[in-house]
Amino acid sequence: MRNTLFGLAAVLALPLVACSDKGDDSGAGSTDGTDGADGADGGDGADGGDGADGGDGGGDPTLYEQLGGEAGVNTVLDAFLGKVVADARINWFFANADAANLKVMLHDQICSATGGGCAYTGGSMLDVHAGMAITDDQFNALVEDLLAALDDLGVPYALDGSEVIDPLLLGLVGMQGDIVTDAAGDTVYFNQLGGYAAIGAVVDEFLVQVAADARINGRFAEADLPRLRGLLVEQVCEATGGYCVYSGMDMVTAHTGMCITDAEFVAMAEDFVAAYDVLGVPYSTFFDGSEVGDGVVQVLVGMQGDITEECG
């Protein structure tokens, strides 16, 4: 909604022009005429009334105030973050984030940028997002989530400056160059693979293949499969340059005492490649790096010495 201030026009009172004095002597016959009565002095014109002072509106409201101040900004933030958490395209970026601190940083940034008097103490957009390999599609997903939150709240926007919130939205769009570091998703290997969703799909299919593989499925009979899946996705994501942090143990520690043989390791690798086949991920015959799927297999093969163990 728009907030328009109306100033009060000053009232101008025009002063009246003062009347001049007049008195004529008149004479009848030969007798002296009586002196004509002095004409009454014209009354002084009333002083024009002072113009009323223009109304004092206290200055234009800040954008922060127009957005509803503290309550308004927090309402928008809560709705926006709710959309982000539910958006599988980007919610994994925030998997390890301190949600409360994230909201504080966003609040302070918006408050500071819109004249609310807050001090933003976070890093620059360029520094904060360095190394995250964010694509244009992911940035656009974030903007879509914000607009969806505004739609839910009934907050109008036009993205042309005609609505109150437009300057904030246009400011966000203006940050795209500092936030996006792999625009087309063709520079970072993680994005070349298809990003988080694609890696999750490969891990899911790999676990299906393992479960059906009598050579090794007994190894996973007691495994916490949801946790195992999460760790595998983190591991592949981090290893390929995605914005993930592997939270599990190193391969030597994790597999010590399991006595995994080279034959079992080869079976696991074959199941991984079988997952590629199901999903149509291209790889070369010798995993020489000429196809997009080769790099992950190279990383997996490089772990063989840490995973296998000769036991007496």
Question: Care to describe what's here?
Answer:
It is a single chain. Residues 1-40 and 48-57 have low confidence and may be disordered. The protein is built from 14 helices and no strands. Helix 2 (69-85) crosses helix 3 and helix 2 (69-85) crosses helix 5. The radius of gyration is 39 Å and the shape is elongated. It has 2 domains: 63-179, Orthogonal Bundle (Globin-like), CATH 1.10.490; 189-307, Orthogonal Bundle (Globin-like). It is mostly helical and 312 residues long. The longest helix has 18 residues, at 136-153.
In short:
By secondary structure, the chain is mainly α. The protein is 46% helix and 0% strand.
List the secondary-structure elements in sequence, H or E.
HHHHHHHHHHHHHH
CATH class of the largest domain: Mainly Alpha
Low-confidence region ranges:
1-40, 48-57
Helical fraction equals 40-55%
Question: What are the SSEs and their pairings?
Answer:
Layout: H1 63-66, H2 69-85, H3 99-113, H4 125-129, H5 136-153, H6 166-174, H7 176-179, H8 189-192, H9 195-211, H10 225-239, H11 251-255, H12 262-279, H13 294-302, H14 304-307
What key attributes describe this structure?
312 residues, mainly alpha, Globin-like, 2 domains, 14 helices
